[in-house]
Design goal:
7 helices; single chain; 6-stranded mixed β-sheet; alpha+beta; Deoxyribonuclease I, Chain A; 272 residues
């Protein structure tokens, strides 16, 4: 086993489309031990073989029951002892929003939290998800700790936690993703459930780095983005983080998603 753990996460904005634009080449080149994807939007049998089951990877796909929506995946170079889809809440078990792999000494989870839309049922869904998911995060940490394991929950959390996490925060204070109650919930993930935002552990001042940019206008060129993709780890693992890098494309035309991959490196040994 290597003496570092590298975890990457990216919302692919449709894996079939991303595979044609550059995801396949990125996956082949990455040094990550684990890659988590969100918004896959495909059944496994709809994916090309090189992303459905690429050589050298153990893969878990968790599609949404509603075809063409959501979906999360995990790729691991190390064989998992067990896997899980969903977190025990009936409404979200087949929603393609959560999956986890239990690897030697660490649980790695891929999360796609609902995006929401103020004043619509989508926001109600987001709030129900958050209400149900918070206690599970605490339970997951406690169970892992009892076994001497760490946890890292990565993915598209669809919340910018603080003003330094989005460029135009003043004009977004009433929009989903930056609502006071959403930001307070994410604070509870850190303060009550006990997870650490690894980006902010290394870079507490910001601003950014942003991980999502709208396709509208010149948001990417102007770096007018949001930081909504997180690598959140239990304290023991977070204390070993050495870098968190947003793999921002060099140009707008080279993007294969509206999100950029976020890659965290931990100075952490897999158990023998």
């Amino acid at each position: 086993m290597p003496d570092v753990l590298i975890v990457s996460t990216v919302n692919v904005n449709g894996l079939r489309a991303a595979a044609k634009k550059g995801f396949t080449e990125w996956l082949a080149a990455t040094e990550a031990d684990v890659v988590a994807c969100q918004e896959v939007r495909a059944e496994p049998d709809q994916l090309p073989g090189e992303v459905r089951s690429p050589e050298g990877w153990h893969v878990l796909h968790a599609p949404c029951a509603t075809k063409g929506r959501s979906g999360v995946s995990l790729y691991s170079r190390h064989e998992p002892a067990s896997v899980r889809i969903g977190f025990g809440e009936a409404e979200f078990e087949d929603s393609g929003r959560y999956a986890e792999m239990h690897l030697p000494g660490v649980v790695v989870a891929s999360l796609y939290l609902p995006s929401g839309d103020v004043g619509t049922p989508r926001q109600d869904e987001k709030e129900r998800f958050m209400t149900a998911f918070l206690p599970y995060l605490g339970e997951l940490r406690e169970k892992a700790a009892a076994s001497g394991d760490e946890v890292v929950v990565v993915g598209d959390w669809n919340i910018a936690h603080a003003e330094i996490d989005l460029k135009n925060w003043r004009t977004n204070r009433k929009n989903s993703g930056f609502l006071p109650e959403e930001r307070a919930w994410l604070s509870r993930v850190f303060d009550e459930a006990g997870y650490v935002d690894t980006q902010r552990r290394l870079d507490p001042e910001g601003p950014g780095p942003y991980t999502w940019w709208s396709y509208r206008g010149r948001a990417f060129d102007n770096d007018s983005g949001w930081r909504i993709d997180y690598v959140n780890a239990t304290p023991g693992l977070a204390s070993t983080v050495t870098s968190v890098v947003v793999e921002r494309a060099a140009t707008h035309d080279e993007r294969w998603s509206d999100h950029a991959p976020v890659t965290a490196t931990f100075d952490w040994d897999f158990p023998a």
